[in-house]
Automatic annotation (TrEMBL):
It is found in: Cell membrane. Coiled coil: none annotated. This is Membrane protein DedA, SNARE-associated domain. The keyword Kinase does not apply. It is a multi-pass membrane protein. Residues 218-309 form the Rhodanese domain. Keywords: Cell membrane, Membrane, Transmembrane, Transmembrane helix. The chain crosses the membrane at residues 53-75, 131-153, 173-193. InterPro entries: DedA_domain, Rhodanese-like_dom, Rhodanese-like_dom_sf, VTT_dom. One of its GO terms (cellular component) is plasma membrane.
Length: 324
């Protein structure tokens, strides 16, 4: 974790804010909020210009987000999957961002910087969609102004309390950098432990594409559930043969009639996070034979197994279930 000290913020002013925010938006582990707060405190004391600092932060955010948006448009979903390998929270954030995008559309770009976990993944994920670059830049600029302005004004409003905090920390032989570093290490440790425990619990729930193919050719083929969101289905309108579309937020729709059947859930999320979440909930509901497809639909297609087109108006799951 890299830190920028309050002294550096005061000495370098808008330049320090620009570099810090740009690095943050590009994914470098640099906390931007403390720097903006310290800059706001400096604005309150008259040592920095609010307009200059705000413009520097907004410009840096637009550049960084623009790079990720362009990368998402060029490289598509494989880029999101690669990012998930290096992050402790991106896999779950992808699902959250997609759900918000389906409900509210591109305006969610304006609030993503305020939500932990969504700030980094939203620009490249929006790049994989069909939204226009102009619309993305417009909403991203609105969000950047609101985000940077909020923390700058917060730092200015609580400048006296911030100065008292700095003196208290220094009296105990530490610095703000030490405090931020300790908090960052605790957070990363917590996220890593949580993710490790979840993966350990779910590792026996996954099956490979080869195993699913063998199960589908057996005397008792499994029930295959497509847990992709509507946006993902529209971008790739094909599915594993016979798969039933399932709302990932409502696995209860499966019904108790499948409790003794083999059930396989797949998605296209990084680390199969949606399928694992649905599978875990199904297991909790008593579906002891629920599994997730390792690698999801991508793994199935990569191994050359057949797919079928998704109907223009797929039949509601309840009707399909009634005929099982």
């Amino acid at each position: 974790m890299i830190h920028v000290t309050p002294a550096a913020v005061t000495a370098w002013g808008s330049e320090a804010v620009f570099v810090n925010v740009l690095c943050t938006r590009l994914g470098v582990p640099v906390p931007a909020v403390p720097v903006l707060v310290f800059a706001g405190s400096a604005v309150a004391h008259g040592t920095l210009s609010f307009t200059h600092v705000l413009l520097a932060a907004v410009l840096a955010a637009l550049i960084g987000d623009g790079v990720w948006f362009s990368a998402g448009r060029v490289y598509g979903r494989p880029l999101i999957n690669r990012l998930a390998r290096f992050s402790l929270s991106i896999d779950s954030s992808v699902q959250t961002t997609r759900s918000l995008f389906e409900r509210f559309g591109v305006p969610i770009v304006s609030i993503c910087k305020f939500v932990p976990g969504l700030a980094l993944i939203t620009p490249p994920l929006m790049g994989t969609t069909r939204i226009a670059a102009r619309a993305f830049v417009t909403w991203d600029a609105i969000g950047a102004v609101a985000w940077a302005g909020f923390w700058l004004l917060g730092g200015a409003l609580f400048s006296r309390q911030l100065a008292m905090l700095l003196r208290t920390v220094e009296q105990h032989g530490a610095t703000v950098v030490d405090l931020l570093l300790a908090l960052a290490l605790l957070y990363v440790g917590y996220r890593y432990l949580r993710r490790w425990r979840l993966r350990k619990w779910l590792q026996d729930l996954t099956i490979s594409a080869e195993q699913l193919d063998a199960m589908m050719h057996s005397a008792a083929p499994p029930v295959v559930l497509d847990a992709r969101l509507a946006t993902a289905v529209s971008q790739e309108p094909y599915r594993i043969p016979g798969a039933l579309l399932l709302d990932p937020n409502a696995p209860r729709a499966l019904g108790s009639g499948f409790a003794q059947r083999e059930v396989v859930v797949y998605c296209v999320c990084p680390n199969d996070v949606t399928a694992k979440r649905v599978c875990g909930r199904l297991r909790g509901e008593g579906f002891e034979h629920a599994h997730t497809l390792r690698g999801g639909l991508d793994a199935w297609v990569a191994r050359g197994y057949p797919v079928e087109p998704v109907p223009a108006r797929p039949e509601p799951f309840g009707r399909s279930f009634a005929r099982q």
